[in-house]
Here is the input.
Amino acid sequence: MKYTIRAIKYFFYFSIITTAIVLALVLIGAVEGDINEIFEGGYKALWKIAAFFAVIAAVYPKVGFIRREVPLRREWTEVREDTISYFRDRRYILESENGDTVTFRCKDVASRLSKMYEDRITLKITPEGYEMEGLRKDVLRLAAGWEHRLSPEE
Here is the structure.
């Protein structure tokens, strides 16, 4: 269900961004205000564009969100304070902590809005260490830094 909701969100996100770009081009006079002049085929081209956005939106959640193992062999009670501090330094706040799952959200509204409120980072405690889930870019950045910060000095 979460995958479908994300796909629908991204379809509308792509549509709104494209509409805003076309509107800006019309307002600055770079293109005519007639749909037949903007797109070859006029209104018929809109269906092709919508189909293209639907395909991209259907695939993007699979590529844009990941789970990554973070091989820290330390108990949550040992790393809890350092972890919360690390995420706070990166503008994330603790959202919830229940059992073996901890979630963080972006602190500021602008960042959350730019990520379409898909800013949640989830940490799950696993036998191998921890599993981090969320937006690909954020997970890769946060997991690498978190692992480096909490790894013992060599």
